[in-house]
What we know:
The protein is α+β, with helices and mostly antiparallel strands. 15% of the residues lie in helices and 38% in strands.
Amino acid sequence: MKRTALLLFAVAMVFDVAPVQAETSTPANEPPPKLIVGSPAPDLLAQGVVWIEWHAENVNIVPVFGKEALDVSPRVGHLHVHVDDLPWLWADMSTNPIDVALLPPGQHKIRIELVNAIHRPVPGQSKTVTFTIPEGASPH
């Protein structure tokens, strides 16, 4: 057991792998970040457009990346936006509402994750919004 632990430690040192706790570190004396997500605007859903307002507390949403940014104070981060469990996502570094159009009619979901500067999710700060695009909805 000691040999395995020593080997893992040596591999981590060689490849500069830090423990997960270090990757989600927070600057001292700052409250934890919080993601607040609203419901889609119902009048826009009827037009085939999903508009989700959100805001984050205790974190600045900015296009700053890398391990050095983990200890920046005030804390920085951005959003990862997932649509319908598709294998891709997009990173959002604005403070604008999330705006998606041209989804087909039917039930959909958007998962919004607050992540740090190295794209690691902030624990407990992922929100999923489900909604239905009605038949005949058109953004035109």
